[in-house]
Write a structure and sequence with these properties.
By secondary structure, the chain is an alpha/beta fold. It has one domain (2-277): 3-Layer(aba) Sandwich (Rossmann fold), CATH 3.40.50.300. It has helices at residues 2-12, 36-60, 77-83, 103-106, 112-115, 137-140, 146-165, 179-191, 201-208, 210-224, 239-257, 268-277; strands at residues 64-71, 93-97, 124-128, 168-176, 231-235. It has a 5-stranded parallel β-sheet, with helices on both faces. α2 packs parallel to α11. The protein is globular, with a radius of gyration of 21 Å. Bound molecules: adenosine-5'-triphosphate (ATP) and magnesium ion (MG). The site of adenosine-5'-triphosphate has 15 residues, from α3 and α6.
Length: 279
C-alpha cells in the first residue's frame, strides 16, 4: 500500500522546475487502480485511516495540514470533500470555499483573506478554491494587469514556504477534468432538479474560455510547484478514481508527517490514588 502511494505520488506530481503539460495528462487515466468496485472498498478503508491519523495530529498539536483543491467547475471539488474528507472529525477540520472577493477583501493583497483560514497546530484545513483563483479567473478575465498577476506566483511560493516552515504541510491538488466530461456534468446539473441549484449562467462563460483556463492552470502549476509545496494533478473524469487517488495521497501525506500521540510524564499511581480517594 505504502509503495503504491509513493508511486502514485511520483506519477501525479508536477515535478518542481518542470512544465505541468496538462495536455499530456489524461483526465480519464486510472494509474495503479482501474476497477471501480475495488476502488470503492479501498476508499472506505482509507477514510478510516484518515480518522486515525487526524486523532494523532490533534493529540500531538505541533503540525497542521492544509489541503488546497483547485479545478474547473464540476471537476468534483465538493464531491471529493464530502467523500474523502468526510473521514475527518469536524472538531479539528475546517473547510472553506473561496468565492469572488468582497470589496473589503479586494482592498487588500490576495493573501489577506487566506492567512486567517490557515490551520492551527493540530488541525486540518481544506480550501475549496484558494489564492490560485488570483492567477486563474483573474488572469483569464483580465481583472488586473499582467504585471500584477504575474508577480503573484512568487508571492504564493513564498507564502507557502512561510506556512511550511511554521509547521504546516501544504498538499495542493488540481482536479483535472476533460472538456467533454464537464459538458456531461453540467448537462446533468440542468436535468436533475436536485443539482440545478449548482448551475450558474456564468459557468458557461467560464467554460467558453476553456483553453485560456488550461493555459492559466498550466502556468500556475508549473510556476508554483515547489519542493516544499508540490502540486498533484488528479485525473478527475472518473469520480471513483479521483476519490481513491486523493484519499491515497492524503493518507500518504499524513503518514509522512508521522504525528505521534504524546506520552506525558504522569505519576499514574498517585493520580489513581487521588481518584480512588474521591469515593
Ligand atoms: P462549483 O464548482 O461546485 O460550481 P464553485 O466553487 O464554482 O462551486 P461558485 O459560487 O459557483 O462556487 O463560484 C465561486 C466563484 O468565485 C468562482 O467562479 C471563482 O472563480 C470565483 N472566485 C474565487 N476567488 C476569486 C478571486 N480571487 N477573484 C475573482 N473570482 C474569484
Ligand atoms: Mg460554480
Amino acid at each position: 500500500m505504502k509503495d503504491v502511494a509513493r508511486r502514485l505520488a511520483d506519477r501525479l506530481v508536477v515535478a518542481p522546475g518542470e512544465r505541468a503539460r496538462l495536455s499530456r495528462r489524461d483526465p480519464r487515466a486510472t494509474p495503479f487502480l482501474d476497477d471501480k468496485s475495488r476502488a470503492e472498498a479501498a476508499i472506505d478503508a482509507l477514510v478510516q485511516r484518515l480518522d486515525d491519523w487526524q486523532l494523532r495530529l490533534h493529540a500531538e498539536a505541533r503540525q497542521s495540514l492544509l489541503v488546497v483543491i483547485q479545478g474547473m467547475d464540476a471537476s468534483g471539488k465538493d464531491g471529493v470533500i464530502r467523500r474523502v474528507m468526510g473521514g475527518f472529525d469536524p472538531a479539528g477540520c475546517h473547510v472553506h470555499s473561496f468565492k469572488a472577493p468582497t470589496a473589503l477583501e479586494l482592498a487588500h493583497d490576495p493573501l489577506w483573506r487566506l492567512h486567517a483560514r490557515t490551520p492551527a497546530a493540530g488541525e486540518v484545513a481544506i480550501w475549496n478554491r484558494s489564492h490560485y483563483e488570483d492567477v486563474l479567473i483573474v488572469r483569464v478575465r483580465d481583472l488586473v494587469p499582467r504585471a500584477v498577476w504575474s508577480r503573484r506566483y512568487r508571492h504564493f511560493v513564498e507564502f507557502e514556504r512561510l506556512l511550511v516552515e511554521s509547521g504546516t504541510r501544504v498538499l495542493k491538488l488540481c482536479l483535472h477534468l476533460s472538456r467533454e466530461e464537464q459538458r456531461e456534468r453540467l448537462l446533468a446539473r440542468l436535468e436533475e432538479p436536485d443539482k440545478r441549484w449548482k448551475f450558474r449562467e456564468g459557468d458557461l462563460d467560464e467554460r467558453a474560455r476553456w483553453d485560456d483556463y488550461q493555459t492559466a492552470y498550466e502556468d500556475a502549476l508549473t510556476r508554483t510547484s515547489s519542493e516544499h509545496a508540490p502540486w498533484y494533478v488528479i485525473p478527475a473524469d472518473r469520480k471513483w478514481y479521483r476519490d481513491w487517488a486523493v484519499a491515497t495521497l492524503l493518507v500518504h501525506t499524513l503518514a509522512e508527517m508521522r504525528p505521534r500521540i504524546p506520552e506525558p510524564v504522569l505519576d499514574l499511581a498517585r493520580l489513581e490514588r487521588r481518584l480512588r480517594r474521591e469515593r
